[in-house]
Design goal:
Elements: H1 2-13, H2 24-46, E1 57-59, E2 64-68, E3 70-72, E4 75-82, E5 85-92, E6 99-102, H3 103-109, E7 113-122, E8 128-142, E9 145-155, E10 171-173, E11 182-186, E12 191-195
Parallel strand pairs: 5-10, 6-9
Antiparallel strand pairs: 1-9, 2-12, 3-4, 4-5, 4-8, 6-10, 7-8, 8-9, 11-12
C-alpha cells in the first residue's frame, strides 16, 4: 500500500516517470526502477554517512599544531595552503559549518565542481552571502595539520567577501573543518592551537 501511495504521488509530480503503455513488461520495469530508487534513498538516509563538508581524514603531523593568527577589526585571520598552493588568508569563524571559499580562488586553483546550487551561506556573525556552487578540496593545510577530501561552497563573485574584515579574504574556516580536533583560539597571544582530543565532560 505504501509503495502504491508513493507511486501515485510520484506520478503526479513526475508524470513521465511511469509510461502510459499498458503492458505488463513496462509496468514491471517501472515498478522495479521505483523500488531501486527507494532502496537507494533509504540507504543514504539510514547510513548515517558523514557530512560532505567535514574532512574525510585529518592528520596533524605532531601532537599540537600552533599557528600564528592576526586580528583585523577584531576578526581572526590565519594562513592556509590548499592543494599545496598558497598561502591564502582565511577568516576563522567557528559559527560557520564548514569551509567557504571565494570564487576567484576556486577558479585560480581550478577546483573541481561537484554540485551546482543557489543558496545563502550564513556566517557566525549572521551575515548572509551568496553561494552558487560547491567544489571538492583534496587537501587543506594549516601549519603541519592536513585536512583531506571535503566539499566547500563557493561564494559568488558579487559578494563582498572581505568587507567586514577590511582586507582581502580568500575564504572562511568553520567548525566542521575541526570535527576531529580540539581547537583553541588564543586571542591574547594571537595564535590558534589544533590538537587531538575533546573537551572534558562538564562537572
Amino acid at each position: 500500500r505504501r509503495f502504491a501511495k508513493w507511486q501515485d504521488h510520484l506520478a503526479q509530480v513526475r508524470p513521465d516517470f511511469f509510461t502510459t503503455k499498458d503492458t505488463k513488461f513496462t509496468k514491471m520495469k517501472n515498478r522495479r526502477k521505483f523500488t531501486i530508487f527507494l532502496l537507494v534513498l533509504c540507504g543514504i538516509v539510514l547510513s548515517g554517512c558523514q557530512s560532505p563538508f567535514v574532512p574525510a581524514k585529518t592528520e596533524l603531523g605532531q601532537e599540537r599544531v600552533v599557528v600564528p593568527m592576526r586580528l583585523e577589526n577584531n576578526m581572526p585571520l590565519v594562513e592556509v595552503f590548499i592543494n599545496d598552493q598558497g598561502p591564502y588568508t582565511f577568516l576563522l569563524d567557528t559559527g560557520t559549518e564548514g569551509v567557504d571559499i571565494s570564487a576567484p580562488l576556486a577558479q585560480e586553483l581550478e577546483l573541481p565542481k561537484t554540485w551546482w546550487m543557489k543558496a545563502k551561506v550564513v556566517t557566525g556573525a549572521g551575515k548572509q552571502v551568496n553561494c552558487d556552487k560547491v567544489v571538492h578540496i583534496e587537501k587543506l593545510r594549516i601549519g603541519t595539520g592536513e585536512f583531506a577530501r571535503f566539499k566547500a561552497p563557493v561564494i559568488s563573485r558579487g559578494s563582498k567577501f572581505g568587507d567586514t574584515v577590511g582586507s582581502k579574504v580568500d575564504g572562511v574556516l568553520g567548525y566542521g573543518l575541526f570535527a576531529d580536533c580540539l581547537l583553541t583560539v588564543d586571542f591574547p597571544k594571537n595564535k590558534i592551537i589544533i590538537e587531538k582530543g575533546e573537551l572534558p565532560k562538564p562537572n
